[in-house]
Amino acid sequence: MPKTKATTIEVTKVISSIPQDGFILGVDTDYSTARGKTEGIVYDSDMQIFIGQYYDGQYHIERAFLMFDTSIIPDGANITEAILSIYVGADYSETDFYVIIRSGQPTYPHIPLQSGDYYYAYYSGNGGSRSTSEISATPAYWNITLNSQGISWINKEGYTKLALFSNRDVYRVAPTGNEDISIGSADSGNPPKLYVTYQIEGYEYVFYGPFSEETGLKHGNVTITVYPAYGSPFNFTLDGSYTLELEDKPVMFKWTLEYNYSRVYIPTYSYEEIYVFIPESPYFFYTVEIFDFIGLHNVYIESLVSANGSQYIAERRRIPVGGKATFCLTEFKVYSYRLISDEAIISLGAVETPQRPIWEPAKISFILTPAMLQAEPTNYEGISLRADRLNETCIQVVYTDSRNRTQSVTVTIYSVEKSVLTEEYSQSFTSQQISITWNDALPKKDYLVEIQVEHADFGILTWKIPCKSPISPCRGTIDWDSLLGWLGDWPITPSNFISMAFIFAIITLGSFKDSAFALLLGAITAGILIGLGWFSMSWAILSVIVSLIIAYAIAKGRRRWIER
């Protein structure tokens, strides 16, 4: 799956007219005079709007004006359909007529309406029409589909203003009786509505499931709550598959499990297929902690579950400042973990979920070092790249785009010294395939290769790949587990041996003063080492030990008091 892909979605927005809508009436005993007036009587606060004309001894011409705030339609939207829906309260027509949508934009009509907005010469065109003979029932909504000219009148940067005339008014046909209809205004409970359908690059998410982590088979249904970028959360029921299309990338998806547990999936791409899994009981919340010695940005952690011979993302959460996030995991089950950041995608390996402690949340910790900083270019469709330290002085960089969608590639090589980056080489290219061999590396220095790509489909992409010195001194760290592996059958792990020896030394020194004091000092030392991450012991166990030490000190003190 490409990391991002252009996803075209279709959206329909329903926009109600604003309260300044209304109609303007022209009246005179002479039809031409009534029709050609430059000013009329404004009605913009009534519950009804009238369209058409009628004669009752005088000629009445009624012209309606509707305004819609269409600025919510994105500038890049391709409008494919627009429908004006008006609530016809009554049809008084003795002679049917066509309601014609006309435009006087950008100036006419004004907001709010002015008497001069009545003048017929300000309006032209036919953006869509429909005969009143097609009104089948009243009161009810009645639709007029806008044609291509009407769609072109929709203003994505402000208000769309539509004028509704009778075609008999437009063609100067004087009425002999009633030729009008009434519709609901914005002040009524049934305002005019404009349905605008458009296509735009957006976000599409296809959900499957829910599935059981235990069997890999479909498992009932689940309610997915969507937290959109704007507006209130909403939900849908997943029972097989569901396609969700959104204009803006949502904040997250969440589904609630039994016992008030839940899982979270934070989308990062414009198109994703999301497989929803229900964990096998017993499951609990666990803290996943990241110790970042690289300095990554925009960090997300995924827990992955194996089912039916494949791996699926069970949860994806963002790692905030502090490096911790909560995951819902099955006790003793093995999950794989993957980190996604601006710099790289790092596989963290598989970890068996530990037993859930009673007194404190269990933690699963990962330490990130520069040696782990390996990008996964195959995650981008058609792109492959690598940066290799061929020998002490030579670094080779290769980039290929088989789909020929790369616009530019910039390769920068930095020397690394005590976490300080110094630019040593930088060059930009416009070809789809490049191969660089840089022969100026210093034998004992580490280097970082940064490859920045401007791509037609994926935008700006950046990889940072370390190239270590093959002879750098201070390369390794002491592997206490291997060095002290002969202690493996003892009740402590080899990696804890040094800390245990230190604690024992503290207790020995303290015992010259008092045995209870020495034990308490040893417990305090153990607590400090646990806090620093140098000693593996549960805080719960340490609490029990401290309680026993205090009990011992009290008993010893009482014995001394009795002996006196």
* Total strands: 33
How would you sum up the major sheet? 12 strands, antiparallel
Report the sheet-strand fraction. 35-45%
CATH architecture of the largest domain: Sandwich
Task: Tell me the radius of gyration.
Answer: 37 Å
| Helix percent band | 10-25%
Global shape: elongated
Mean of pLDDT: 86
Q: Which CATH first-tier class of the largest domain would you pick?
A: Mainly Beta
CATH topology of the largest domain: Jelly Rolls
Helix tally equals 7
Distance between the termini: 81 Å
Global structural class: mainly beta
How many domains make up the 3D coordinates? Answer: 4
Which residues sit in consecutive blocks of at least 5 with pLDDT less than 50? 1-5, 472-482, 486-492
Describe the structure.
The chain has 564 residues and is mostly beta strands. The chain folds into four domains: 9-199, Jelly Rolls (Sandwich); 202-372, Carboxypeptidase-like, regulatory domain (Immunoglobulin-like, Sandwich); 380-467, Immunoglobulins (Immunoglobulin-like), CATH 2.60.40.10; 489-563, no CATH class. The protein has seven helices and 33 strands. The chain has helices at residues 31-36, 148-152, 167-170, 480-483, 497-511, 515-532, 539-563, and strands spanning 8-16, 22-28, 41-43, 48-55, 59-69, 78-91, 98-102, 129-131, 140-145, 159-166, 178-184, 193-201, 203-212, 222-227, 234-238, 240-246, 252-256, 262-265, 271-278, 283-292, 300-307, 310-318, 324-330, 334-340, 345-352, 363-368, 383-389, 395-401, 406-417, 420-429, 433-438, 446-455, 459-467. The longest helix is centred in the C-terminal third of the chain and has 25 residues, at 539-563.
